[in-house]
Amino acid sequence: MAVKIVRQPNKMPSWSTFQCRRFSPGSEKAPAALRAAGIVERLQSIGYEVTDLGDCAPRLFADDEEHKRARNIPEIVASLHDLKPRAEIGLKSGALVLVLGGDCTQIIALLTAARRYYKHVNLLWFDRDADLNTPASTPSGRLDGMGLASIIGKGSPELVRFWGEPPLVREPDALIYGLQRVDQPEVDFLTRSPLRHVYGRRHQPAWHRKIGARCPRAPPRRHARIHSACGS
Predict the structure, then answer these.
(1) How far is Cα of residue 118 from the mean position of the Cα atoms in its chain?
(2) How much of the chain exceeds pLDDT 70, in percent?
(3) 4 - beta bridge partners?
(4) In a 3-state reduction of DSSP, which class is residue 157?
(5) Could you give the count of Cα atoms lying within 13 Å of 108 in the half-sphere of its Cβ?
């Protein structure tokens, strides 16, 4: 589902759906549910001008034994190509772009669209998972567990190359907020990376307190900032 929202001139959101059938069935119904709940009317009631640009084609998650280290990669790349031009429409006009999707990798399409118009992008990543696995370290082969790694140029090659000049976002320009579950390879990466990260208070590990968490300073100002909220 893609939407144009204007409060001040040229503000726009967009939505996309990607159903992970095995892990979170029903996510493909979210845009219709939000429309039925009156999200467009609510935004209009507080002064926003909204244009609905429609839904991307839903794609279903499968076990995909052919790509055990990057499951469903053909479908995910196709979904990114579907979403990217919609996001570009909003970003070209200077609009606010909102994407609703069922898979964390969808942010790659939005960031790619942003990089077409902005040289630098800051990323605030809300997720209890780090999403910093790679095809070599993944325990499941699920690409949503490699989403942020692909954005910073270290994940699945097909996703890293979706933007022709990786990385989409530099490690110092990204911040993960609300971490709860981190695999050991991700822990090892975070201890040496300039990528900033903040654990949920009840989930802060001893090693993180010992070395001193990298403070969540406001990212340096660039031309665009992207907020991503993921969950499972």
Answers:
(1) 17
(2) 75
(3) 51
(4) helix
(5) 34
First to last CA, the chain: 21
Whole-number Å distance between alpha carbons of 6 and 94? 10
d(Cα 190, Cα 155) in Å, to the nearest integer?
15
Where would I find the beta strands (DSSP E) of the chain? 2-6, 49-54, 121-126, 174-179, 196-199, 224-229
* CA angle at 107 for the pair 86 and 64, rounded to the nearest 5°: 105
State both tokens at 213.
């968490």
Q: What length is written for the chain?
A: 232
User: What is the tens place of the pLDDT at every residue in 182-225?
Assistant: 999 999 999 999 999 999 866 555 545 544 444 444 444 445 66
Burial of 29 (0-12, 13-18, 19+ CB in 10 A): middle
